[in-house]
Amino acid sequence: MKIRDLILAVLVLGMVISTGTLVIFASSGISDIKDTTSEASSGELLGNASKNLQDVAVSIRDSLDGQMQNQYEMVKTWAQTPALLEVAKKAQSYSKEDLYEMWSAEATRVYGERQEATGDGNPDNDLSPSTSQYLTDLSVITGFPEIFITDFRGYTIAANTATADFDQGPDDWRVILQNNVPVFMKLGMTAWGEDWYRAANESPDGFYVSDIIWNEGTSSWGIEIVSQLKDPETNEYLGQIKAVFDYGMFIDRFVDAEELNVYEIKLVDYLGIIVATSLEDKSKVNNANFNVQNQASFKNAIAEGSGSISQSFIDENGQDVFIGYARSNDVNGHVIMVTKTASEISAPIDMFIGTLQSDIGDKSSALQRNMIIIGAVVAIVIIALATLILIAKVSVPLKKLTNVSEKLSKGEIEGLEIDIKGKDEISSFGESFKGVLAAFHFLKDEAEKNQ
Prior knowledge:
By secondary structure, the chain is an alpha+beta fold.
């Protein structure tokens, strides 16, 4: 029957649509979730990794800045040490020739390429061997490669090692070998002597810290910390103490890149010159070919102070790295840069995302199964509704027709009515029964007239 066929078609179609829609929705939804989660997780994790590098750079920067303040105060304290003040006073009674002999003994004197005498670095010849030993001990403890003191004229009178020059003052006395005869020569070209020597004397508090400079004597990048020596009672100027702080020493002694799980930690001056690196290969230190002033991270550090770059780039070592940076708040304005290779950062992230997607895939299968069950339940509900419709459209009208036919067979036609409406086959059949019922009424009426 057409009605049943239609109802069955509706049932099947409803079941297919409900189940299919739920499955497609579940599959596409999970796929979108996997893709979105992968993208979001990767971007967020890379951002966090870059931020961690920034945090490391800031931590090292703060540590170094704090240590520098301690170094400044430490040199000021040394300048008040009685033993140093005593030897500076003692030097006042010695001539430059006497002090030069102590700095470079003629018996063992060595002359350089320009036939200029060099210091012998032998503390036993110094004005006060115990003072030179004291400075040597300070060098070992602090890591300062060079510590020495001068008298009021600028002559070196005690040092932890051989200094490049004897006279740091305006006269710049030197011994030059001429025709195999050592001759004292005054080579002073300025009225103030070495830059650091003049700066300390011109400073209101007698204290000076230089910019980051390349120290020829120690072959390292660092800063010069200088303080005047003054008699605490009379305030008489006695000389100066100079200590050279080596940034390479700081990186090597106090920063462990491996422990921090980073590729490299480097310190850069305000011109982009690498002054220290945690790498074993130090060839890029003080090497113009490795200048980083054009790197975005360096420019950002100078402009912003601290930050990180969330995209990897090829650094001066040829490595694909992520970077965090922090500019010093100290007077030198150096920049700490911390890098980690892209492969080291991306490997754990990729592993995490892979695990995450696998978990989502497992949950996707479970969800699809649940969706199929829900679809089946929906289909059953649809079947139940279709059954009710079938009963209302077919069974009820047929039952009415059956009752009418049974009464007709018994001749009980009084009060019989057929109330079936519609345009389907049952309704058409009902209309036919109405004609039969009308015929019975006609025959009955004729029989009654003939009586």
